[in-house]
Each structure stands twice: as C-alpha cells, then as structure tokens.
From TrEMBL:
Highest taxon of the lineage: Bacteria
Coiled-coil residues: 220-247
Record organism: Paenibacillus polysaccharolyticus
CDD domains membership: AdoMet_MTases (cd02440)
Keywords in alphabetical order: Coiled coil, Methyltransferase, Transferase, Ubiquinone
Identification of the protein by name: 2-polyprenyl-6-hydroxyphenyl methylase / 3-demethylubiquinone-9 3-methyltransferase
InterPro entries: SAM-dependent_MTases_sf
Pfam family, one: Methyltransf_23
Listed GO biological process terms: methylation
Length: 248
C-alpha cells in the first residue's frame, strides 16, 4: 500500500483540520527558510509543494519520489506555474538510494522520510554523496510516537541526532507542531565512531524534557475535560432515571 501523502492538499487547506493546515504550512515554510545555496534536492517530495515554493524564489530544485501518483500530481501542479518557475523545478519518479547521478546539491530536503526507513544509513550514505562541500541537510520527522503503518522509527531529539552524526554535524534541532526539525552540515569524511560532546547531549535532553512536559500537561487537561463531560453525562442520566421513577 502506498503512503499517498497529500501534503499540497493540507497546505492549501483542502483536507483535514485547521490544526493540520497550520502544522503543514509551518513545517514547509521552516524548510524553505533553512534552505541554502541554489541547487536543491527534495527527497520524498510527495505532491511537490516545497519544491514549487522554492522554485518561485529562484532556486533550482529537483524533486524525487517513489510514488507515481504523487509525481503526476506534482507535475500537474507545476504546469499551473509561470514559465520561470517551471524552468526551475524538475520532478522525477525514482529510488533515491539507487540514483547514480554525479550532480551535487547545496541543500537536500528530507521532509517526513527518515521514519519510513528501518535502515536509515542506506539513505544517509547516498545523501552524503549527493551533497556538495559543506552542504546542508534539512530533516523533519514526526516527534515521538505517531501511529502509522509505515513508520519504522520513532524519533526523539537524541536518537535523530545520533542517527545523523556519522555523516553530518547537527546545527539546529527544533520542534514545530509535533515535528522534530533539524538542520545539519555535511562532514567531509564519514565518522562512524563520532561521539557528541556532553553539553550537546544535555541540550537534546532538555529539548525532549520541555516538549514532553508540555505533552503531559495537554494530556492532563484533556483528561480533566473528559472527566467533567463524563460526570455531567452521569448526572444527567441519574436525573432522567429519577424522573422516570417519579412518573412511574
């Protein structure tokens, strides 16, 4: 079964909730702001919104995805754009791990891709090869547990950073709308035995602590609201039963 991520439709508010629309736009705009250089590779581009937005700003973008339906949708959306934008963006259906291109890119985007890999090193090795000197990697993944049949990884700040560290220097880790967002820079040489400094580990732990405390607070508020609604429903049921007994 294909994942069929409908990111363009969420971005434009055509499907799902207002919270989903805001989360999608925040994440996509964050990725665009963090993009550097001119040659961009958008891996797992889905319906193409991020590639097209960058194309409107003059970046030269190659968007790739495994799903034929997503690439077809992206190409149809691109066809609606002006000629300069169409000239800046190229969508291709291909398996990035098998791509033999010799072209290098200034920035590679991985928007909700890593969580679909049981062996992310396969992808990261290829991204390392495709990035130019001191190239930028931009990653977003669901933060914490998100139940979805094709999610093979659950990411928190520390294990995402440790996953990237042999190949990239982690420059920034942030959380936006339940997405963990990372900016990293290519290591010139792969360092499989790299160890993060203690202060960096403590920063990752603090990030997790802050955001999961917020999650717990939201959960407690939700539980209180549900208990209040349940108590109200029970009281109403008792009143109805008393009324039936009095009438009977």
């Amino acid at each position: 079964m294909a994942n069929h991520d409908r990111v363009n439709e969420r971005y434009y508010g055509e499907i799902n909730s207002e919270d989903s629309h805001e989360a999608t736009r925040t994440r996509v705009h964050w990725m665009c702001r963090e993009t550097t250089g001119k040659r961009i590779l958008d891996v797992g581009c889905s319906q193409g919104i991020t590639s097209i937005l960058l194309g409107r700003e003059g970046f030269r973008v190659t968007g790739v995805d495994l799903e034929e339906e997503s690439i077809r949708y992206a190409q149809e959306e691109l066809a609606k754009e002006s000629k300069p934008v169409r000239n800046h963006v190229d969508f291709r259906m291909l398996d990035i791990t098998q791509w033999k291109a010799r072209t290098t890119f200034d920035t590679v985007l991985l928007g909700e891709v890593l969580e679909h890999f049981a062996h992310p090193e396969t992808l990261l090795l290829q991204i390392h090869r495709l990035l130019g000197e001191e190239g930028t990697l931009i990653v977003t993944v669901p933060y914490g547990y998100h139940p979805f049949y094709d999610h093979k990884q659950t990411f928190y700040a520390s294990n995402l950073a440790m996953c990237l560290l042999p190949y990239f220097e982690v420059l920034k880790l942030e959380v936006h709308h339940k997405y963990l967002c990372c900016v990293a820079r290519k290591h010139q040489k792969i360092q499989l035995d790299v160890k993060p400094p203690l202060n960096q580990v403590l920063d990752w732990m603090k990030l997790d602590h802050t955001h999961f405390e917020e999650v717990e607070q939201q959960h407690l508020r939700s539980m209180k609201q549900r208990k209040k609604a349940l108590d109200s429903a029970v009281d109403q049921l008792k009143r109805l039963r008393r009324q039936e007994n009095e009438e009977g």
